[in-house]
Structures are given as C-alpha cells and as structure tokens.
Amino acid sequence: MPTFNDPTADAEEARQALRGLAHATMRIDDPDKLYGIVGELLAATRSLEQSLIQLGGASLTYQGRAAHDDGDLGLGAADAWAAADALRQAAQHVNAAESALDQASGHLGRIVWQRPQWHWVTVVFLQGEEADRVLDLIDRDGTDAAIEHLRGFDYGDETTSAALANEHVYDTPPTGANTRMVTESEYALTYSPTFVHVALYRSYTPPPDDATGEGDGPQNTGPAQDAANAEAARRALDERRNRVRGDGSWFTPDRITDIKRNRGLER
C-alpha cells in the first residue's frame, strides 16, 4: 500500500506493482480489459512525470551538499546538476509516452469487442508420468502423432458437456511463457517439457444466447437438469478415460484396442 509520505517505500511499491503487471499482461483473456488497463497506466505516467521533475528539483536543492569521496565539492555539484538534467529529460520522455498512451486510450475507447465465434474446450490435460509419455511421442514422431493419440480422449458431446460443467472453456487455448502450441484442424495441442504437462483442446461453437430446445412441448431444463446432465457426462467421460489408461496399454486409446481385439491381435 502507498504511504504518501515515504518516497523510498513508495518507489519500491511502484517497482513491485510494475513487475507484477509485466507478468500479468503476458496473457490477456478479455480484450475488454485493455481500455481500463491503459487508462490506469496513463494516470501512472502522469504521476511518474511529476515524480521525476520533483526528484530533479531535489537534486538541485541539495547541490551544495554534494561532494565526491575525496571531498571535491565542485565535482559533486556538477554531478548533482547532471543528475537533475537527466531526470528532466526522463520526465520529457515520460510525457511523450503519456501522449501516446492517451491516443491508445482514445482508440480503445471506440472499440466494441465482438464475442468470439468459437471457444476451446479441454479434451484432456496430462501431467507428470502421463505427460512424459506424450512428450516422448512428440520427440519421436512429432506433434501430429501426439494429437492423433490424444484424440482418443475426445468423446464429442460428453467431452464438451464435462468441459462446460467444469468451466474448462477458453477464448484461446491457455499457454504460458514455457508452453508451446500447435494446431491441427479443430484441435490445439499445448505442451511444456519444462513443466511436464500436455493438453489437447478442441474448438467449440457456442449456441446463440437466445437458442431454445426443439419441439413445442415442455422442455426438461433448469439448474437441476443441467447439473444432472453434467454429472452424467462426467461419469461417462471418466469411464471412457479409465479404459484408455487401464486396458493393459495406457498408450493405446480404446478405439485402437477394439481394432486389435477384432483382429485377434490381443491375448
């Protein structure tokens, strides 16, 4: 929290806040937030410009007390003046940044961001040992092979219902600084050898806001029915995923296992 009377503590607070902002803005989930963020930064540059001017003034105010280590007051005074001049120039640069931010704020203020035409739902997210196997597959056979393998976890509407129920729906597939992403058709694969995780997402087009069920009779909808449908989808999805992991070969999706059984290849 700012102290409003301890410039050293408040400078540290500002540094930490800007460091946090640099990390937070690595991913913007909602473009509607841009206008507000830029507006806050615009106000911050005005305060920063004022602070730089005041710091330069303080350097000149105490110029007579400036000395080098050897006691040379002349050199100390020259450095104090040079520091004040550099701070004045910094304030001018911040003023230019303020003007640019003001323009950016004006442009953003005229934008009405449209809703995305599709979202991404989580098909599967793997960590640790399970992710290691897929990362090995990527190293050996490439990302296309990994996507084909992870598609074995996708059960269409069941997967979509489970993702919606768990709020695993995104405007863009989640990524971080150490995450790589590739897309193929309707799928997006993200993976991180650093943090050992792999995820597959599928594009999903949400129904219109005013969409209603088909038919003229009473519709069996409402919070209770939605919860029941979501729970049923989760149970079915868990059962199928357990089959993928527990059929004797974790690395073989159940549809491939069925083929092996039909061909008599499995004993």
From TrEMBL:
Region (Disordered): 203-267
Basic and acidic residues: bias regions: 232-246, 255-267
Origin: domain of life: Bacteria
Protein name, as recorded: Uncharacterized protein
